[in-house]
């Protein structure tokens, strides 16, 4: 029957959480449950799901998803849905490998031959010189579109000079030959967001991401009506019921659900189909690891309203040395075998449709286990900690989001 016999999870650098599901016949698949800054909470949720789903038929992906959703009574939210995501993705990978087909074939087949992609430049606190240095490098890597943070952390009412610096960075990226999207990151509040959006209109941005926090749907609806630049959001919406009011209000042009936050491939596919009925495009959020990216790409191949895919290659969060005092850095190729590297190769702004079974990538399990265990030589000076879960493993220290404070000492949005 292919009953699930083992569900494991692995905390790895720079800030990712991978999941492996194995059935009684030895078939296995990989998923990703990364929820940035909340690793231990996800591990706790996964511990519960291991107890529930061990013994279930691994082929019955929808039954497992619905059981997780309905059996728990309390449902939704970032932690629960991210834990479910890792298991769901792993089950799709397992099934695709067992049947020797890409996951998109199981979803109904592909509608495109290649996928438009973009990457990040700059950092959490972007500056003009960094953009000038990085933009030409991304062009040389094959990218045609980049995204960067619009501003550093801001107060409710802040200096207009911060807005001017944003415009200078946009101009620099465009001069390098790149299209530009800007992530407001929910850092700006209404007074500043309105000013910046208006100031940026002459520069033809691809989209503005999270101009305001999604917890303010009424403000986003009004904001969207005031600007001509497409409005994107969705990384902090965790299932189709979260997304429904934004579709009904016609306040979002581009949805950005994250396959590792919304309940996996199963729910991402449903969200995309629902958005298509409202003429809303989907550009999956993915500043995460290679499994999350590969899972997003499988859905991208299948859905009609796909727009563009985020890739975390070179993103500032992947610089381990700045987070863990480690000499080693980790990126989206670090945990996949060399023969899979071309799956993420960018040519003229696109990656080719993956062709391998399941997720289409070969995971380097030995590397994952080495890093997750904290063995000497894998992390050098990286901090490690003993955790309650998986007591036989010493795990890398969980990643934490930066804290930003204003000059008055008050906390500001990350």
TrEMBL record:
Keywords: Lyase, Magnesium, Metal-binding
Cited InterPro entries: DgoD-like, Enolase-like_C_sf, Enolase-like_N, Enolase_C-like, Mandel_Rmase/mucon_lact_enz_CS, Mandelate_racemase_C, Mandelate_racemase_N_dom
Entries under PROSITE patterns matching the protein: MR_MLE_1, MR_MLE_2
Keyword Magnesium attached: yes
GO molecular function, one term: metal ion binding
GO BP, sorted A to Z: amino acid catabolic process
Cofactor section: Mg(2+)
Pfam families registered for this protein in UniProt: MR_MLE_C, MR_MLE_N
Record keyword Ubl conjugation present: no
Mandelate racemase/muconate lactonizing enzyme C-terminal domain mapped to chain residues: 128-230
PANTHER family found in the cross-reference section: D-GALACTONATE DEHYDRATASE (PTHR48080:SF2), D-GALACTONATE DEHYDRATASE-RELATED (PTHR48080)
Protein name: Mandelate racemase/muconate lactonizing enzyme family protein
Organism lineage string: Eukaryota, Fungi, Dikarya, Ascomycota, Pezizomycotina
């Amino acid at each position: 029957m292919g009953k699930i016999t083992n569900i494991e999870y692995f905390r790895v650098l720079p800030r990712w959480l991978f999941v492996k599901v194995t059935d009684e016949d030895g078939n296995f698949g990989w998923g990703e449950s990364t929820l940035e800054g909340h690793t231990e909470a996800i591990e706790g949720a996964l511990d519960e799901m291991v107890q529930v789903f061990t013994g279930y038929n691994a082929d019955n992906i929808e039954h497992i998803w619905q059981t997780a959703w309905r059996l728990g009574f309390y449902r939704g939210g970032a932690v629960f849905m991210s834990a479910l995501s890792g298991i769901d993705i792993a089950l799709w990978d397992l099934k695709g490998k067992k049947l020797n087909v890409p996951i998109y074939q199981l979803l109904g087949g592909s509608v495109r031959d290649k996928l438009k992609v973009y990457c990040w430049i700059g950092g959490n606190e972007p500056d003009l010189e960094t953009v000038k240095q990085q933009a030409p490098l991304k062009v040389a890597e094959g990218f045609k579109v980049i995204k960067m943070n619009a501003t550093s952390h801001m107060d409710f009412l802040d200096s207009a000079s911060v807005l001017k610096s944003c415009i200078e960075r946009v101009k620099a990226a465009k001069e390098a030959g790149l299209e530009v999207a800007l992530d407001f990151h929910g850092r700006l509040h209404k007074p500043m967001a309105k000013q910046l959006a208006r100031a940026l209109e002459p520069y033809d941005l691809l989209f503005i991401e999270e101009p305001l926090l999604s917890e303010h749907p009424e403000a986003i609806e009004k904001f969207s009506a005031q600007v001509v630049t497409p409005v994107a959001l969705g990384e902090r919406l965790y299932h189709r019921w979260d997304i429904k009011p934004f579709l009904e209000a016609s306040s979002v042009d581009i949805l950005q659900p994250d396959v590792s936050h919304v309940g996996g491939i199963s729910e991402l596919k449903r969200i995309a189909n629902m958005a298509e009925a409202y003429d809303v495009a989907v550009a999956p959020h993915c500043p995460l690891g290679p499994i999350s990216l590969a899972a997003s790409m499988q859905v991208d191949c299948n859905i009609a309203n796909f727009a563009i895919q985020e890739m975390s290659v070179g993103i500032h969060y992947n610089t381990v040395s700045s987070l863990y005092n480690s000499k080693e850095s980790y990126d989206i190729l670090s945990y996949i075998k060399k023969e899979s590297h071309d799956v993420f190769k960018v040519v003229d702004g696109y990656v080719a449709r993956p062709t391998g079974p399941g997720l289409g990538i070969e995971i380097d399990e030995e590397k994952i286990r080495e890093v997750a265990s904290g063995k000497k030589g894998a992390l050098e000076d990286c901090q490690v900690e003993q955790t309650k879960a998986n007591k036989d493993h010493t795990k890398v220290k969980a990643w934490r989001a930066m804290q930003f404070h204003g000059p008055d000492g008050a906390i500001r949005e990350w």
